[in-house]
């Protein structure tokens, strides 16, 4: 009588499978599948048009569910088709694992434990393995690319992850089936976690082990794949700033009402006074700065980077609304003139700009002055609001 795989009962309990996309990994594929079979029989393999011995190797695993593509279509297509196939087989979750041998099958326990710890009513869960990219044995280019992706994922979703590019993940298939995808290759794994987060899915990291072999087979093409990921994030930034973030805040406003929304989302009473004041200072600094047309992008990006209240920062960045723009430009020019040693030019008129050289010189004075003026206003408002928020917090403590 054959022994049941170690975690088979747990996989059955959650209608979960392991999904293995593979392309020209004949050197490691058989050992990866053999190791997985120690833990579960619920394995789905997608052969993404491999041209090596992959198809022959898979004939030795006839008990597994296997899809073969005639030609290579990209990891994104392989994953997406694998998700649909897994759903057709009745699965509700899929744990994806790369076939290059860098992941440890015994880490399946960590994914299953997260499912077991969920409570009724919890939001849907998408797990991404955290490979601890700060380790010394992680290639520098992988660590740098991951940091880039982590930052922009935070900007467009508001969720902090330490690893956004690991292929060892758990997906809720009932969520995935309702998302329309447009990417086909490695950037698909970015698209799916961003769009899941936008649908109120909890996207979180869990610690996993990873083995980096010096000459392991990888199909990641640094220039083209990073270019596609960058373009994808550029699109996500636009969508998130002009649709997702405003939509979410509007929905929160409708749900909570003005008083609760102001307290929780604008004032955020649980945040310390210095951070609330810093959000105001950041918004004012960006609003006065000469980056016209980029204020919204900058305030949300820097707000995410410094972990400040982006709503407060955005509101105060609107200091540069049309009625105030002439005063900001005039004040910036005067400040630049003063700093450069020319003193305040109170008799400013169009005659001051009757040559190209004078126009460029004045533009330089404006840019210089705008940064100084922005810094001064930001500093003053930080001090003012820090004491106001501190006083308000002390008053609240005394009352309670």
From TrEMBL:
Residues 262-396 form the DUF2062 domain. Pfam families: DUF2062, Glycos_transf_2. The keyword Kinase does not apply. InterPro entries: DUF2062, Glyco_trans_2-like, Glycosyltransferase_2, Nucleotide-diphossugar_trans. Keywords: Membrane, Transmembrane, Transmembrane helix. The keyword Transmembrane helix applies. The chain crosses the membrane at residues 226-244, 277-300, 312-333, 363-389. Gene3D superfamilies: Spore Coat Polysaccharide Biosynthesis Protein SpsA, Chain A. Residues 17-117 form the Glycosyltransferase 2-like domain. SUPFAM superfamilies: Nucleotide-diphospho-sugar transferases (SSF53448). This is DUF2062 domain-containing protein. It comes from Autumnicola psychrophila.
